[in-house]
Amino acid sequence: MKILSFFERSSRNFRHSSPYSKFLVLLAVSTGGGIGLVAYSDAKSDHPSSDTKKKKVVVLGTGWAGTSFLKDVDCTKYDVQVVSPRNYFMFTPLLPSVTCGSVEARSIVEPVRRIINKKNGDIKFWEAECLKIDPKNKKVHCRSNHSVHVDGKKEFSVEYDYLIVAIGARANTFNTPGVTEHCHFLKEVDDAQRIRRSVMDCFERANLPDLSYEERKNKLNFVIVGGGPTGVEFAAELHDLINEDLVRLYPALHDLVKISVIEAGDHILSMFDKRISSFAEEKFHRDGIDLKTGYMVVNVSDKEITMKEMQNGKVHSLPYGMIVWSTGIATRPIILDLMKEIGQANRRVLATDEWLRVEGCENVFALGDCATIQQRKVMEDITAIFNIADKDNSGTLTADKVKKFLEGICERYPQMEIYMKHKQVSDLVDLLYGPNGKSGTKELSIEDFKAALTEVDSKTKFLPATAQVAAQQGTYLAKCFNKMEEREHDPEGPPRIRATGRHRFHPFRYRHLGQFAPLGGEQAAAELPGDWISIGQSTQWLWYSVYASKQVSWRNRMLVISDWMRRFIFGRDSSRI
Amino acid sequence: MKILSFFERSSRNFRHSSPYSKFLVLLAVSTGGGIGLVAYSDAKSDHPSSDTKKKKVVVLGTGWAGTSFLKDVDCTKYDVQVVSPRNYFMFTPLLPSVTCGSVEARSIVEPVRRIINKKNGDIKFWEAECLKIDPKNKKVHCRSNHSVHVDGKKEFSVEYDYLIVAIGARANTFNTPGVTEHCHFLKEVDDAQRIRRSVMDCFERANLPDLSYEERKNKLNFVIVGGGPTGVEFAAELHDLINEDLVRLYPALHDLVKISVIEAGDHILSMFDKRISSFAEEKFHRDGIDLKTGYMVVNVSDKEITMKEMQNGKVHSLPYGMIVWSTGIATRPIILDLMKEIGQANRRVLATDEWLRVEGCENVFALGDCATIQQRKVMEDITAIFNIADKDNSGTLTADKVKKFLEGICERYPQMEIYMKHKQVSDLVDLLYGPNGKSGTKELSIEDFKAALTEVDSKTKFLPATAQVAAQQGTYLAKCFNKMEEREHDPEGPPRIRATGRHRFHPFRYRHLGQFAPLGGEQAAAELPGDWISIGQSTQWLWYSVYASKQVSWRNRMLVISDWMRRFIFGRDSSRI
Q1: B547 reaches A (C-beta below 8 A)
Q2: pLDDT at B154 over 60
């Protein structure tokens, strides 16, 4: 009893926040008689609170972008308010694991209020959906999204000085008929839980008496549309669930199960290195997962999915038990409305500049999946660039002039650097004047200058819609906000091209830290920085450790690890809850 | 990596069932660097399978009664089929803990197929709802209850030789208007999860901007109707959730929260000993939980709950944020239909005899909350009893004759024993002839006999609708089924009163093992066998250990314990999922 009382007291002290650094060693006593030691540390800084005339920053969304902004923004400088229909942050890369019960939904979510609490509670959170962004009046209109009855005022509006739009995207159906009605998506916790129930449903249905062989088979036909990382990971998880756990509970049904992955392109995981893509395809073939590459889904009815062979236009139909639709993302309606208002109506995705500022309205920032950075093109600014470099207005550029101007140009136009790498030259002078031009006296006219750089913009890179990009953008923006006043007088960015002086901040630059593709059966593939490729079981262990370490809190980390342990020991659960 | 590979291999071996007893020591490696040892053992017997002409036993329901029957029935003797809309067994006593996140829903459920698998898979399970019991044709009509689309045949029927009805009961609303629409019940996993979301909803709603003080207060008014063990435990859990965890996340709202318990009787926990009931009431007063005893709810609207003071008939209204309705159980419609068909239409609850056989139809058994045992009354059989005892038909009974007949009479009529205890006599002779009548020659006429026993039946005990009763009934019935053939020739029960010979089996006798009432704040009360009472923190630890040990599988046990640990360490989660 003494140990337990100590334990309890410790845990209470631990949970009630103190401003000091905490360190707690927990004696974890289990009935099995074993003792486990877990080390825990958490640091917390003490901010003095001052509420005088702080500018209002409103953050929409609690996904990767919104949450990393929140974690890093300095609340003593701004009055931060968060609006989101989800009062938690979700670790999306583990969502496919939730669908099959390798990890519990609750383990990968962290309440926003816990994150806020770590910042001394200076952030307000409203659980509501944003209905409309009104950039003219600097307001957002919101509605509480509670399922239970609400009396009186449901809607309210929040004023802002700065607005951070980080509401993510919706699933893209490409307007295929029947998809919304009959397919599962995989974007939210609810989706994952529904998929999980649905898998169990298919097995229980196929197991009912009085069914023909064909009927049983159709019910156990699992179809995944989209061969991207999410679809592939779900297919792999499902295969594991069935072969490791369900086969023993439904032995008669095992041979009837079929998993199909439908992909319009020629390969699955096409965004990865070819070696990974081929490895995945081979593994799936070995596992008996049916890969239908080069097929486009044209219709989904309540019983069948219809697809067209891309090569010859032949149409095939496939009865199914469950479909998971995972073909990419599309813009949310509220963003489309905003785009109309600010003159971006002809675009498909909301555009921001390289500092994440929404083009066409002031003090509104957009990050994560809901926007793309519209990289300024070199050719658009080519005359201005030439004029700046040509300080004496001689109408021509010498290598010397270019050298002086080098600084900042590659930061402002990152495609320049990629183009130079592509051309295998080391700097701008080499590119413009050739390998021996450095010491020469060759002078470039504006036409020569344009001609040399005409293909640069073809190397403009668009950022992928991943958690990594969103998180980096959130952190970047928070840092900018924290230094806003300072940088007003002491700008750190590259020189302005179409104006004088410098930009306040460096533009956002994405650092790719690698990407995983778990393939099931304790196999994974990974693309690591520096074009490294890693495939196999060790990569799966790398996956475990990276994903455990990337959790936003120690709580999540412990929960996720203990979920993995539970799965190792007891297998996945088959209860339909 | 070596440790991990060992771990993985072990776990696979472990999970793939082998017919032998297993023992596995797991090295639980966590990132914290700690090592935990957990001992695990599981035994499994090897039954030879023989499918020749076995009688069909159909079990309806996978609750306490159905599952304990399944666990103990000998599948080599019967062709067992189970029909239930729930493909899992749920440990109901922990359901109130799920509502507030002290325990996860998944930890307290065990898939039926896992239980079946331990019996070598000789049991068939159909995930379906039973729509109609047809005792004339010995059939049950069922319908698959899947939420996803089902093609073709949804309904099917199952034939039986023996039917075990164990489908439980529904919540009793006493036909109070508005209850079904606006209140939460607490019977299923879904209910608990909905309540959990609803609590978080209330907090998030009360926290929205632009609300008045009154509006916030109303939204944080949590009302529990019914002061039984479930209602009281939920109130206690809710109080703990709010005071231990939510207070830090919503500091501004803490003073607005109010928890009320409405009970029509004079006391809460009235089925417990008075000391427990008073202790609970005092603790709730200290905790600031509003106890409204002596109030009956008469109406529930979308905003207010209306109740009548029992003493003076005054009507009060109370605005609320959430109501949990927990006032007892009522008979399910399908059972009411069956009752009409078998001549029990004028009863409120399905009646069985003391061997759990449904009165009025053959080979149908009912157990758990869906039926009550109709104890045969002594006075109904009084003449038959007298005649049997009076072997020589002299018309009078001597003490000797009664002594010979003693055997069996108390088993057949357990109220006799309670009555004797009440009268403080040690046996039947003392009761009939007085303390000195044993050696006397006093002879009893049938009128004397009747007069002496006329109050016996007032001591008939009805069994409470608890998990304990249901589980014991399931085990009892399984044992009867296992010995069915044997007992045909060698009956073990008491002598038949209105026929010759003996009953095949002993009638069902309930052994009360005690009952817990967790009261929150690490305090619990317990009624233990032998009229012992235990109250306080040590009782809470007893509660932890009893509930951990009572889990149906090692898996559940470990999950529940690790949930408790998680709660101790990290507190409860406030995410709205």
Answers
A1: no
A2: yes
Residues of B in contact with A30 (CB under 8 A): 36, 38, 558, 561-562
- Average pLDDT estimate for A467-480: 96
What are the tens digits of pLDDT across the range B321-332? Answer: 999 999 999 999
Bridge partners (DSSP) listed for residue B520 = B523
* pLDDT, tens only, A12-30: 544 444 433 333 333 333 3
The count of CB pairs under 8 A between chains A and B is: 248
d(CA B322, CA B218): 9
**Disruptive mutation site among A89, A216, A568, A572 for chain B (greatest number of B CBs within 10 Å):** A568
- Scanning A16-75, the segments in alpha helix (DSSP H) are 64-72
Chain A residues inside the 8 Å CB shell of B211 = 153
Q: Report the relative pairing of strands A532-536 and A523-528 from DSSP bridges.
A: antiparallel
Q: Tell me how crowded residue A371 is: count the other CB atoms within 10 A of its CB.
A: 25
Instruction: Give B352 to chain A, closest Cα distance, Å.
Output: 30
- The radius of gyration computed from the CA coordinates of chain A, to the nearest angstrom, equals 27
Q: Which residues contact B282 (CB under 8 A, 6 or more apart)?
A: none
**What is the mean predicted confidence (pLDDT) over B455-460?**
88
pLDDT higher than 90, residue B173:
yes
Contact B38 A34 (CB under 8 A): yes
The pLDDT of residue B308 is 96
Q: Range with the lowest mean pLDDT among A433-447, A456-470, B308-322?
A: A433-447
Among residues A47, A72, A119, which one has the least CA distance to residue A479?
A72
Q: How confident is the model at residue A146 (pLDDT cuts 50, 70, 90)?
A: low
pLDDT tier for residue B374 given thresholds of 50, 70 and 90: very high
Calpha distance B173→B169 (Å, rounded): 12
- Closest listed residue to residue B82, CA positions, set B133, B130, B135, B150: B130
B39, B114, B156 ranked by CB distance to A210: nearest = B156
**The pLDDT value given to residue B439:** 62
Q: Residue A436's pLDDT band (boundaries 50, 70, 90)?
A: low
Considering only CB atoms, B577 lies closest to which of A26, A189, A210, namely A189
What's the gap in Å between the CA of A46 and the closest CA on chain B? 17
Residue B184 confidence (pLDDT): 96
The answer to whether A348 and A371 are in contact (CB under 8 A) is no
A545 contacts B127? CB cut-off 8 A: no
The pLDDT value given to residue B91: 95
SS (H, E, C) A102-151: CCCHHHHEEEHHHHHHCCCCCCEEEEEEEEEEECCCCEEEEEECCCCCCC
Identify which of B1, B249, B303 has the shortest CB distance to residue A113: B249
Distances (CA, A) of B301 to A367, B122, B179, B190: 44, 50, 8, 23
Could you identify the residue written with the tokens 């809470």?
B540
Model confidence at B16: pLDDT above 60: no
Q: Searching chain B, which residue's CA lies closest to the CA of residue A302? A: B149
Tell me which chain B residues have a C-beta less than 8 angstroms from the C-beta of A146. 201, 204-205
- Does B550 touch chain A if contact means CB atoms closer than 8 Å? no
How far apart (Å, rounded) are the C-alpha atoms in residues A291 and B119? 38
| Residue of A8, A144, A575 with shortest CB distance to B205 | A144
Q: Does A145 touch chain B (CB under 8 A)?
A: no
Rounded CA Rg of chain B: 27
| Residues A303, B197: C-beta atoms closer than 8 Å | no
CB–CB contact A545 B31 (8 Å): yes
Q: For residues B450-456, give the mean pLDDT.
A: 88
**Contacts of range A40-45, beta carbons closer than 8 Å, 24 or more positions apart:** A40/A14, A40/A554, A40/B32, A40/B569, A42/A554, A44/A17, A44/A18, A44/A19, A44/A20, A44/A118, A45/A19
